[in-house]
Amino acid sequence: MLDAKLVRTQPREIAERLATRGFELDVARLESLENQRKSVQTRTEQLQAERNARSKSIGQAKQRGEDISPLLADVDRMGTELEEGKRELESIQAELDNLLLNIPNLPHESVPVGADEEGNVEVRRWGTPRRFDFEVKDHVALGEQHGWLDFETAAKLSGARFALLRGPIARLHRALAQFMINLHVTDHGYEEAYTPYLVQAPALQGTGQLPKFEEDLFKISRENEADFYLIPTAEVSLTNIVAGEIVDAKQLPIKFVAHTPCFRSEAGASGRDTRGMIRQHQFDKVEMVQIVEPSKSFEALEAMTGNAERVLQLLELPYRVLALCTGDMGFSATKTYDLEVWVPSQDKFREISSCSNCGDFQARRMQARYRNPETGKPELVHTLNGSGLAVGRTLVAVLENYQQADGSIRVPEVLKPYMGGLDVIG
């Protein structure tokens, strides 16, 4: 969430910056609510002061033997008006809070301005796409050829946008996740975590999925108890570890990594990537999260992006890095890099990781702070998150880039220890 004071005092400047994201801030409504809040608060404070003074005069009148019933009635009337004022103030504040909760983060000054993905800027490329001397198959054909990838049975079990992995592909999928986790823990200094897959609404509000994106979530309603939501990413559970906490500055940076399934309804993805494993309701992801001191968050973003890139480099998969433009960034991000891996069957790069600096946006929603050693006062931390990587999409890239003419798949060198030394599957 943005700083409420900043939005109140500079609404038009904030609106201009948000407009580059395609978000229209209702400045008139914001100013109207703020004026109402000030008016009601001033009236309530004056009424409280007057009531306090009148209450004191009751005692004085009583000592003089005067009839105090009119004064008592007046105090009672003021009490009723005070309660009404407090309820009105709470209602106005609730609307202001809801408005703030639905405002996206401000883009950093280094973010390219653009309306949509066409405005993204390529930063660098790594590797050269392989040239095949045979007709390339997509991952669906490769998987179904041996009965390893079964969408029909998955649909029987769960419906569309699910996959059943069997045999060598299931093992390869597991190997990829283990390889990624080990790399990030051993080489990149992350602490491995195993988190709940079900969270309550405050956790999702803290990282920005609620209230704006509720339709994209899978919700489990419970009678007389708080609703559960299946996590759309481990970012939610990992980042919220520090919700409501004041972290010792000596603990920073805090770096977590977790391998979890992720669940997304893909409400806005009708008709997109309906074939294969690119866009699923359930998929696995290795997620990186960092909690850092504010002045170091952009340095941390570069490092985290490099951590994700290292996975692709060791797998020898060609990729490119994009700086997302203002109109294509996620709700909570102030700056984002996307990694796109080469997918031979589509003859193009496809997103496989998104690494974002959220600044203090999530921290303010979660009230996640650290104690500044120079001032001794609590200040908001900065939070970052990134895929390291999406396991299913990495599997797609490995199957397609390492395919052979007979439909078998060469095992990438770094995965052989996780595959019992196998050189080829199929």
Automatic annotation (TrEMBL):
<comment type="pathway">
    <text>Aminoacyl-tRNA biosynthesis; selenocysteinyl-tRNA(Sec) biosynthesis; L-seryl-tRNA(Sec) from L-serine and tRNA(Sec): step 1/1.</text>
</comment>
<keyword id="KW-0436">Ligase</keyword>
<feature type="region of interest" description="Disordered">
    <location>
        <begin position="35"/>
        <end position="65"/>
    </location>
</feature>
<keyword id="KW-0175">Coiled coil</keyword>
<dbReference type="GO" id="GO:0005737">
    <property type="term" value="C:cytoplasm"/>
</dbReference>
<feature type="binding site">
    <location>
        <position position="387"/>
    </location>
    <ligand>
        <name>L-serine</name>
    </ligand>
</feature>
<feature type="coiled-coil region">
    <location>
        <begin position="75"/>
        <end position="102"/>
    </location>
</feature>
<dbReference type="Pfam" id="PF02403">
    <property type="entry name" value="Seryl_tRNA_N"/>
</dbReference>
<dbReference type="GO" id="GO:0004828">
    <property type="term" value="F:serine-tRNA ligase activity"/>
</dbReference>
<comment type="similarity">
    <text>Belongs to the class-II aminoacyl-tRNA synthetase family. Type-1 seryl-tRNA synthetase subfamily.</text>
</comment>
<keyword id="KW-0067">ATP-binding</keyword>
<dbReference type="InterPro" id="IPR002314">
    <property type="entry name" value="aa-tRNA-synt_IIb"/>
</dbReference>
<keyword id="KW-0030">Aminoacyl-tRNA synthetase</keyword>
<dbReference type="InterPro" id="IPR015866">
    <property type="entry name" value="Ser-tRNA-synth_1_N"/>
</dbReference>
<keyword id="KW-0547">Nucleotide-binding</keyword>
<dbReference type="Pfam" id="PF00587">
    <property type="entry name" value="tRNA-synt_2b"/>
</dbReference>
<feature type="binding site">
    <location>
        <begin position="233"/>
        <end position="235"/>
    </location>
    <ligand>
        <name>L-serine</name>
    </ligand>
</feature>
<dbReference type="InterPro" id="IPR006195">
    <property type="entry name" value="aa-tRNA-synth_II"/>
</dbReference>
<dbReference type="GO" id="GO:0016260">
    <property type="term" value="P:selenocysteine biosynthetic process"/>
</dbReference>
<keyword id="KW-0963">Cytoplasm</keyword>
<feature type="binding site">
    <location>
        <begin position="264"/>
        <end position="266"/>
    </location>
    <ligand>
        <name>ATP</name>
    </ligand>
</feature>
<comment type="function">
    <text>Catalyzes the attachment of serine to tRNA(Ser). Is also able to aminoacylate tRNA(Sec) with serine, to form the misacylated tRNA L-seryl-tRNA(Sec), which will be further converted into selenocysteinyl-tRNA(Sec).</text>
</comment>
<feature type="binding site">
    <location>
        <begin position="351"/>
        <end position="354"/>
    </location>
    <ligand>
        <name>ATP</name>
    </ligand>
</feature>
<feature type="binding site">
    <location>
        <position position="287"/>
    </location>
    <ligand>
        <name>L-serine</name>
    </ligand>
</feature>
<keyword id="KW-0648">Protein biosynthesis</keyword>
<feature type="domain" description="Aminoacyl-transfer RNA synthetases class-II family profile">
    <location>
        <begin position="138"/>
        <end position="412"/>
    </location>
</feature>
<dbReference type="InterPro" id="IPR002317">
    <property type="entry name" value="Ser-tRNA-ligase_type_1"/>
</dbReference>
<protein>
    <recommendedName>
        <fullName>Serine--tRNA ligase</fullName>
        <ecNumber>6.1.1.11</ecNumber>
    </recommendedName>
</protein>
<feature type="binding site">
    <location>
        <position position="233"/>
    </location>
    <ligand>
        <name>L-serine</name>
    </ligand>
</feature>
<dbReference type="InterPro" id="IPR042103">
    <property type="entry name" value="SerRS_1_N_sf"/>
</dbReference>
<feature type="compositionally biased region" description="Polar residues">
    <location>
        <begin position="38"/>
        <end position="60"/>
    </location>
</feature>
<dbReference type="GO" id="GO:0006434">
    <property type="term" value="P:seryl-tRNA aminoacylation"/>
</dbReference>
<dbReference type="InterPro" id="IPR033729">
    <property type="entry name" value="SerRS_core"/>
</dbReference>
<feature type="binding site">
    <location>
        <position position="385"/>
    </location>
    <ligand>
        <name>L-serine</name>
    </ligand>
</feature>
<comment type="subunit">
    <text>Homodimer. The tRNA molecule binds across the dimer.</text>
</comment>
<dbReference type="InterPro" id="IPR010978">
    <property type="entry name" value="tRNA-bd_arm"/>
</dbReference>
<feature type="binding site">
    <location>
        <position position="264"/>
    </location>
    <ligand>
        <name>L-serine</name>
    </ligand>
</feature>
<dbReference type="InterPro" id="IPR045864">
    <property type="entry name" value="aa-tRNA-synth_II/BPL/LPL"/>
</dbReference>
<dbReference type="GO" id="GO:0005524">
    <property type="term" value="F:ATP binding"/>
</dbReference>
